[in-house]
Amino acid sequence: MERNKTNKEKKTIGSVIKAVEVIEFIANSERGVGVTEISNGLNYGVSATYHLLNTLKECNIIVQNKATKKFKLGLKLWQIGMLAYDQNHISVILRPYLKELKELTGETVNLTIMDNYQIVYIAQEESERLVKMFTRTGATAPLHCTSAGKVFLAFKPKEVQDSILSKIELTKYTDNTIVNKEDLIKELKEIRSKGYGFDNEERELGVSCIGAPIFDLNNETIACITISGPTSRFSKKNKERWLKDVLKISKQATNYLNTIK
Fold this sequence. Notes:
The protein is built from 11 helices and 8 strands. The strands form 2 sheets. A 6-stranded antiparallel sheet has the order 5-4-3-8-7-6, sandwiched between helices. A two-stranded antiparallel sheet has the order 1-2. A hairpin with a 6-residue loop joins strand 6 and strand 7. The protein has 2 domains: 2-80, Arc Repressor Mutant, subunit A; 88-257, 2-Layer Sandwich (Beta-Lactamase). The protein has helices at 2-9, 14-27, 35-42, 46-58, 75-87, 89-93, 95-105, 147-154, 158-167, 181-194, 236-257, and strands at 62-64, 71-73, 108-115, 118-125, 140-141, 197-200, 207-215, 221-230. By secondary structure, the protein is an alpha+beta fold.
């Protein structure tokens, strides 16, 4: 009910929102999904879902396997996605900084933004090591259990931070996940003070991350740059060295953004 009220106030079109949600649902499936599965997953009526799918199929946004009747994303959406990537100013101009950080640390480097109470991976430089971390571009992750997410939260104004924390769920992924709001706020204060954040196997066991903010001209966190890799390589010595590298590159990226008119 609250969502419908908000939609009316913003004069949005409900069917378009549903179409986008259908696209996202299909995007998160690995082998395609059928009408009933989409209908049940989104709590939409089968008939309405069917009409949405037919419209998206007509626009070549999705395609349907004739044998299985399941849907997956179409090449049209891929074309649009590539155009969106080219127009994504930050992911393009900061690519050299991601590459430099990968060379310095040897680990996978990610560039993320914050959108809709979660982080979104918009660019990545993959480690050349045999054992490495990989996250596809466009993937999302929670705020409270990722180094980037905690960095974004830490540098938000207090009232904005409180508002976000009141809306997100502190889901437990591992024994290291912070699920107590007071404990999270305490860590956010430390992150803001030190200028960087860690993910110590808080989202996934065996995976650790270091992240630092990239600021825009208004001194707001526009993006976050992180390195991620197997915890076994995040020794005390490596963490100390890599932290300096992450902070150096994040500062250079910030300075560069602030020179662009």
